[in-house]
Amino acid sequence: MLLLLAEYLQQFHTGFAVFQYLSLRGILGVLTALVLSLWMGPWLIRTLQLRQIGQSVRTDGPQTHLAKSGTPTMGGALILSAITISTLLWADLGNRYVWVVLAVTLLFGAIGWVDDYRKVIEKNSRGLPSRWKYFWQSVFGLGAAIFLYMTAQTPVETTLILPLLKNVEIPLGIGFVVLTYFVIVGSSNAVNLTDGLDGLAIMPTVMVGGALGIFCYLSGNVNFADYLLIPYIPGAGELIVFCGALIGAGLGFLWFNTYPAQVFMGDVGALALGAALGTIAVIVRQEVVLFIMGGVFVMETLSVMIQVASFKLTGKRVFRMAPIHHHFELKGWPEPRVIVRFWIITVILVLVGLATLKLR
């Protein structure tokens, strides 16, 4: 939106041409979303408190969590609002990738909103039934996958790229739709499972989102892509604005979500952010790198799968409680220790993911 204004004003003063630079608009996306989050946060928290939209806590979990009962939830709406406004202000609205990522983010956020609404407002402990949640995730995930497949302009946009192997490219054909579906839906649920401690999910999301922003910038530049031997995806660079907005909104939310949290993200934020990360990774053809950088999300998801499978097959539990962050809490780790150590793991994994840019 502001990019169009800058293009119009450029005829009066050449200084407005600076807004054509993706790097500048990415930075402005960060700052705009951050300011919006910090500005709207206190109002949102007061509104949630007045409406008694508070978190209910499981009594069979760590006893330290009982004190969190009643903490305002559905704070993910703050993140999505800041991301959307910042992206619409600074991104090129003629770019199809911007719209598909925004659409996936908001649609998955809508699923989470309905789930949170039923749990918190209607006092329905089940929330949105799992079959319906998965159904709508599948509808929106497949919709995004088919759109990206049908609008692909070059073969590389539907090719599987393996990091470290510069000469290995696997054409997926219609299999691209299947892979994209699993990446988007899987990422959405993985972030949602991780969102169980104050700040645990949002900071890894910010770090992975920032790294994906670097991939977007490099993949959208033909010279950088050729030098680094990564796929050149025309138009992908514009997603650095969305990634910047995600970083700013996430850091702004963390200001209120850090231990002890004043507000929780809820499914409205977790489902949306996970789907956004998955969609961006698919666009820049870095699904495998997302798997590496999002190792904490993968670990949390696998812990739940292992726990359920073990209990059904043997009647025994592998972990004291799943997802795995609760296991460490029940072992005696203070909550801040679990959070910060998972952040440290994410920093290391993100650096490993970025290292694949050169190790090919």
UniProtKB/TrEMBL annotation:
The chain crosses the membrane at residues 26-45, 66-91, 97-114, 134-152, 172-193, 200-220, 232-256, 263-284, 290-311, 338-357. This is Phospho-N-acetylmuramoyl-pentapeptide-transferase. It catalyses: UDP-N-acetyl-alpha-D-muramoyl-L-alanyl-gamma-D-glutamyl-meso-2,6-diaminopimeloyl-D-alanyl-D-alanine + di-trans,octa-cis-undecaprenyl phosphate = di-trans,octa-cis-undecaprenyl diphospho-N-acetyl-alpha-D-muramoyl-L-alanyl-D-glutamyl-meso-2,6-diaminopimeloyl-D-alanyl-D-alanine + UMP. InterPro entries: Glycosyl_transferase_4 (IPR000715), PNAcMuramoyl-5peptid_Trfase (IPR003524), PNAcMuramoyl-5peptid_Trfase_CS (IPR018480). Pathway: Cell wall biogenesis; peptidoglycan biosynthesis. Catalyzes the initial step of the lipid cycle reactions in the biosynthesis of the cell wall peptidoglycan: transfers peptidoglycan precursor phospho-MurNAc-pentapeptide from UDP-MurNAc-pentapeptide onto the lipid carrier undecaprenyl phosphate, yielding undecaprenyl-pyrophosphoryl-MurNAc-pentapeptide, known as lipid I. Signal peptide: none annotated. Mg(2+) binds at residues 192, 267. It comes from the Bacteria. Its cofactor is Mg(2+). It is found in: Cell membrane; Membrane. Keywords: Cell cycle, Cell division, Cell membrane, Cell shape, Cell wall biogenesis/degradation, Magnesium, Membrane, Metal-binding, Peptidoglycan synthesis, Transferase, Transmembrane, Transmembrane helix. One of its GO terms (molecular function) is metal ion binding. One of its GO terms (cellular component) is plasma membrane. Pfam families: Glycos_transf_4, MraY_sig1. Its EC number is 2.7.8.13. It is a multi-pass membrane protein. GO terms for biological process: cell division; cell wall organization; peptidoglycan biosynthetic process; regulation of cell shape. Belongs to the glycosyltransferase 4 family. MraY subfamily. Its main location: membrane.
